[in-house]
Amino acid sequence: MDLGLRGKSALVCAASKGLGRACANALAREGVSVTIVARTQGPLESAAAEMAGSYGVTVTPVAADITTAEGRQAALAACPAPDILVNNAGGPPPGDFRNWTRDDWIKALDGNMLTPIELIKATVDGMIERRFGRIVNITSSAVKAPIDILGLSNGARAGLTGFVAGIARKTVRHNVTINNLLPGPFETDRLTANVTTVAKNAGRPFQDVWDERMQSNPAGRFGDPAEFGEACAFLCGQHAGFITGQNLLLDGGAFPGTL
Fold this sequence. Notes:
Blueprint: E1 9-13, H1 18-29, E2 33-38, H2 41-55, E3 59-63, H3 69-78, E4 84-87, H4 102-130, E5 133-138, H5 151-171, E6 176-183, H6 189-202, H7 206-216, H8 225-236, E7 247-250
Helix pairs in contact: 1-2, 1-8, 4-5, 6-7
């Protein structure tokens, strides 16, 4: 399917690896000029060179921390008027809520709620003026099924979800959609870190916990980041203009609810 995106521009956050890179790859394949942001220069530039070489589009790397005002300024200087915005940032660490301070909570909110809101605020009016915009926020399956050791993430991402639910109904009449993608267990560094924490706390070998988690998923496996990227690209496409304010869960069927 031609998604109708050739010639568009995208700003993709936390895109040097993992789910962010998968989204950038899928958009670049569709002919989108992509600005990718990540904190570490080396992997970021390697990802940019690989994408540009594979898809023949302009890929601009910006080494910055998107959760800071300075990082957002750098990203928006490189891509001031994106047609597509993919919000993404590394999740806060797992742990016991009894050990978290106010500073821990503020950092989580800055990264996983306030940063996406600031980027939406900076770009949505331009999208409305151009009569095209796609905003996709990478959140977490924990929005629907909270994970006890991920309380910081549960709280911050749920706050973003509530915010999006309010504004997505106002922008859609201008052909600007805002949706959330909720990843379950995908094979990323984040999943490896979480399983490592669980295994350490339980005094069990990492591989045993990894295999157990994988087999407990109805799909019998973890997700491939490329699958996630394809879902993101579709939501960004011309054919998805009637989808807004939604939370699309990609978890292999792990969530057992009807809705």
